[in-house]
Specification:
alpha+beta, 4-stranded antiparallel beta sheet, 12 helices, 10 strands, 42% helix
Length: 293
């Protein structure tokens, strides 16, 4: 996770430079010839390739303005938006762009957006990032980018309350709930607060990390606590590192440790993801909140 790298660098008194790259008209500039070369390199051949070729071939388009239509013209490049296959083909087309990033800089790809960042141990870190931007610009479709130093938002009490206020204000709109407290309104609606929902998802994600259900490695975020025999609580407790800055202190891998360690779980509750989800549903997590009622 990029934010994990950023907060860790800031906590170690290092700088971070980040560039967000957005491909302009990414869906429209995909070269069909290059796309099929990449599909072949991925092992996509035979009837499936011919089916995709048929899907992209002999398509036409026109422009509609004020009830008038232009002449139809053939589409010689691009993939179709608004279809399941279109975004998938785009991903296959640009998926290898981060391979050219190399050392000195890290690249993360999500759809047609690329996030590049460099940890600034020294001034040359800027040059590494700038160099990678030039390479990416010259290697693919036209793109725009924004470059800036990173400021990480922390999950502080003030921010948690500000996010919660969105749902708090909305539930007040129901006339039948006039005079009820926020907790009472949530009970009537049979929903949980936004904070509790986020906490629930965070705990499920920790479970998935610890049991290798996601690609994220345990060592990237957590250190397992070495417990002595007879220690209270479950046996999967984690160790929280000291944080010099709030951005790291309130980041996911630190803020969730105390909540995870305090779960009154049994070995049976950890036996499967389904069992763990059921355990969370019947467990009162309200004592772990930091926001106001």
């Amino acid at each position: 996770m990029a934010v994990n790298d950023w907060t860790l660098a800031l906590n170690n008194s290092k700088g971070v430079a980040v560039a967000y790259v957005d491909y302009a008209k990414a869906f429209d500039v995909v070269s069909h010839r290059k796309l099929f070369l990449k599909l072949s390199a991925y092992g996509i051949k035979g009837d499936l390739t011919e089916w995709i070729r048929s899907f992209l071939s002999e398509r036409t388009q026109c422009t509609h303005v004020n009830h008038e239509y232009s002449n139809y013209a053939g589409i010689v490049s691009g993939v179709i938006q608004g279809r399941v296959l279109g975004p998938l083909l785009l991903l296959l087309y640009i998926n290898d762009v981060t391979d050219i990033v190399g050392s000195g800089c890290t690249g993360k790809l999500y759809a047609d957006d690329i996030k590049l960042y460099s940890i600034l141990d020294n001034p040359p870190g800027y040059n590494d990032l700038q160099g990678k931007l030039i390479v990416i610009y010259s290697s693919g479709p036209t793109c725009g980018s924004s470059k800036f130093h990173i400021k990480v938002l922390s999950a502080t009490v003030g921010l948690v309350n500000k996010v919660e206020s969105v749902q708090r204000r909305f539930t007040k709109r129901f006339v039948c709930f006039y005079g009820l407290t926020y907790s009472q309104r949530l009970t009537k609606l049979r929903i949980k607060s936004l904070e509790l929902r986020r906490l629930h998802l965070d705990l499920v994600y920790v479970y998935k990390i610890l049991f290798d259900m996601v690609e994220t490695k345990v060592s990237t975020h957590f250190v397992r606590h070495k417990l002595d025999t007879g220690t209270r609580g479950h046996s999967l407790k984690l160790f929280a590192h000291h944080s010099r800055i709030d951005a790291r202190k309130h980041f996911f891998c630190n803020r969730i440790v105390q909540c995870w360690n305090s779960l009154p779980a049994t070995p049976t509750d950890f036996s499967s993801l389904t069992c763990f989800r059921r355990f969370l549903e019947r467990t009162d997590l309200s004592r772990l909140r930091i926001g106001k009622d």
